[in-house]
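Ops channel
N.P.: pipeline sanity check, posting one input/output pair.
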């Protein structure tokens, strides 16, 4: 997890906490090449953004997937 609001940087696949234009925070999942793959809704508190990441880490590996190819 990288907190961009604190000036942190990261490489590889990662979750990022970023600030929105209105001062709230949101979560992005970024690929190893630096491209954002998923963006969350905005949260009023940074702790809610951290809870979003925690939930994704816990539930994501167990989630059903659909191949739309």
């Amino acid at each position: 997890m990288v907190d961009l609001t604190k000036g942190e940087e990261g490489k590889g696949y990662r979750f990022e906490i970023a600030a929105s234009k209105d001062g709230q925070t949101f979560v992005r999942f970024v690929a190893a090449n630096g491209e954002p793959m998923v963006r969350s809704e905005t949260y009023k508190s940074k702790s809610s953004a951290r809870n979003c990441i925690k939930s994704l880490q816990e539930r994501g590996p167990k989630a059903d997937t659909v191949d739309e190819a």
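N.P.: looks fine end to end. The two ends are 30 Å apart (CA to CA).
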